[in-house]
Amino acid sequence: MHDRRRWWALVVLMLPVLLVSIDNTVLNFALPAISEATKPTGVQLLWMVDIYPLVLAGLLVAMGNVGDRIGRRRLLLIGSVGFGAVSVAAAFSPSIEWLILARAVLGFFGAMLMPSTLSLLRSTFTDRNQRRLAIAIWATGFAAGSALGPVVGGILLEHFAWGSVFLLAVPLLLPLVVLAPLLVTESRDPNPGRVDVLSIVLTLATMLPIVYGIKAVAENGPTALALAPIAVGLALGVWFVRRQLRLPNPMLDMGLFRLGAFSGAVVINLLSVTALVGCLFFVSQHLQLVLGLSPLAAGLVLVPGLAAMIIAGLAIVPIARRVRPSRLVPIGLFISATGFGAIAISGGQIDAPGVAIAFVLLGIGIGAAETVSNELIIANAPADKAGAASAVSETAYELGAVLGTAVLGTILTASYRSAVVLPDSLTRAQEHAAGETLGGAVAVAQQLSGGTADALLQSARHAFDSGVGLAAWIGVALVLSAALVAVIALRRAR
């Protein structure tokens, strides 16, 4: 393939990357509007956020394996058409239940997009220096989409209903469907085995009860009812691993995890994305519902940090040629930990400039670390298993997104419920809405007279921010844990 065509192919493959990252950020900023419009419970709101990355994470390895067999470009096109159609349906969901269902189906088609993009980069850029730069651009595409998401989403939410944020998929995916067959060369595993349906079922059956159990533990403590689903999920996970070891053509080559650089990079992605998505979940609500910023103004507060993430991801490429990953990645993650620490030390009571500075520190570290870790994942995988290896990387991302809202979001919700003090004059319906989420409390306050409304808002905002401080300390622990993994697991990586 001619060099110029390779880079144009990269531009096309960046479209679904931008879409997924824009979707994640836009949704966080649309949560207050969705809360006010659909009146969800706290659990429904978390499931609406979680169900998409949960289904996505459960199917990524399976879809990466399918792409290795039927063709990665073909799977990318199927996923693009399906994702665009369901996005339109999600935009006009009549209730929170329908929106949760639409998000689940979006996860199914979204699982076809991401492994295909990264594995196609592996086959398109055979020179490692070119591939390192391409992967850096790919990784920073998430940050670029996150930077665009708040601004574009803020404009949409100030002029249109919340459903407009889902319609962003259409203008991004139409060029992909037209240009990918012209610019992107098809690739597949030359010796594919059959698609193992039982393994696909086991991946989903492992993920669902574990995440459900984590939610239950975060909300109710380590009770038997909360721990039982986790035990079931882990048992099914063991079954999945044993099955992969026995199959002649496994859905996931478990031998990849014997490589320290591969498995270490996957864990680093998992922990850092858990912290990042959890941070976005509470910061977006703090900016809008506590500080009173508009969606657009709240998005602009985060833009410097997201720009720092892009710059760090690209600037790290020449440095990574000379400095060992076991030194480079921990330094980046320590910088991110200081950003979380600033929010944690404030106890959640931090103003907009403080949030902006903290997010710059967070962005620098995670942007640099994820570029290096993603390149290690692809470089250490055999070319014919690029789809499955890419899917493992993406599974770490999406499972991190699930855990970010499942753990930090659930802790935040539980802290809010226990701390909020509701006025005696509320109706039962108003008590339910205001006691579940901060967005619900803001919506209820709009129905009340001045003194009662002010008392409710003051109590709700204080309760929310007390949970933000706790969630930020957990973010510090997650990022420092990722740095420790990098020191140990990447010591032999170059």
Keywords:
494 residues, 0% strand, globular, 2 domains, Growth Hormone, Chain: A, mainly alpha
Short summary:
The protein has 494 residues and is an all-alpha fold. The chain has helices spanning 3-38, 42-70, 72-91, 96-124, 128-159, 169-183, 197-220, 224-246, 260-290, 295-320, 325-345, 352-379, 386-419, 428-436, 438-445, 450-489.
Task: Describe the fold and architecture.
With 494 residues, this protein is mostly helical. The longest helix has 40 residues, at 450-489. The radius of gyration is 22 Å and the shape is globular. 58% of the residues are buried. The protein contains 16 helices and no strands. The two termini are 28 Å apart. It folds into two domains: 3-183 and 251-422 and 460-489, MFS general substrate transporter like domains (Growth Hormone, Chain: A, Up-down Bundle), CATH 1.20.1250.20; 196-250. The chain has helices at 3-38, 42-70, 72-91, 96-124, 128-159, 169-183, 197-220, 224-246, 260-290, 295-320, 325-345, 352-379, 386-419, 428-436, 438-445, 450-489.
- Give the mean pLDDT: 80
Helix/strand class: mainly alpha
Q: What CATH architecture of the largest domain do you see?
A: Up-down Bundle
Q: Supply the CATH superfamily name of the largest domain.
A: MFS general substrate transporter like domains
What topology emerges from the helices and strands here?
Blueprint: H1 3-38, H2 42-70, H3 72-91, H4 96-124, H5 128-159, H6 169-183, H7 197-220, H8 224-246, H9 260-290, H10 295-320, H11 325-345, H12 352-379, H13 386-419, H14 428-436, H15 438-445, H16 450-489
Helix pairs in contact: 1-4, 1-5, 1-6, 1-9, 1-15, 2-3, 2-4, 2-7, 2-13, 3-4, 3-6, 4-5, 4-13, 5-10, 5-12, 7-8, 7-13, 9-12, 9-13, 9-16, 10-12, 11-12, 11-16, 13-16, 14-15, 15-16
